[in-house]
Amino acid sequence: MNTDTPKPKSPLESEIKMTELILPNDANILGNVLGGRVMHWIDLAAATSAHKHCHSICVTASIEGLSFLNP
Predict the structure, then answer these.
(1) What are the C-alpha distances in Å from 23 to residues 5, 18, 20, 32, 70?
(2) Which member of 13, 31, 44, 52 lies 3.0 to 4.6 Å from 9 by CB, making a disulfide possible if both were Cys?
(3) Per-residue model confidence as pLDDT tens digits over 13-27
(4) What is the pTM for the complete model shown?
(5) DSSP letter assigned to residue 27
(6) Phi, psi of 27 (to 5 degrees)
(7) H-helix or E-strand spanning residue 54
(8) DSSP letter string over 34-49?
(9) Degrees to nearest 5, angle at CA 4 with 52 and 2
(10) What is the mean pLDDT, run by run of 10 residues, along the chain of 71 residues?
C-alpha cells in the first residue's frame, strides 16, 4: 500500500477569506475600485487557496477572462 498518496480534500479545506481595506490609491476619481487592483486581489486569493490545498508553491499561468459588468 502506498502511504504517499494524499487523501482527497473537500473544497472547504482549501477555502480562504480575504478582506481588503480600499484606500484612495485603489480607486479612480469616481471612487470605483480599479479593475487591475481587483484582479491582483483575485490572484492573491487564488494563490493562497492553491497553496493551502496542495502545500506547494503555485503560480497563475493564465486567466481566460474577467468581465466587469458594473462599476
Answers:
(1) 45, 16, 9, 11, 20
(2) 13
(3) 889 999 999 999 999
(4) 0.78
(5) B
(6) -130, 160
(7) helix 35-54
(8) PHHHHHHHHHHHHHHH
(9) 150
(10) 73 90 94 95 93 89 91 83
Q: Strand, coil or helix: what is 33? A: strand
Of 18, 20, 16, the C-alpha closest to 33 is: 20
Write the single-letter amino acid at 62.
S
| Cα–Cα distances in angstroms (integers) from residue 33 to residues 22, 44, 47, 64, 69, in the given order | 8, 16, 21, 21, 13
Phi/psi of residue 2, nearest 5 degrees: -85, 115
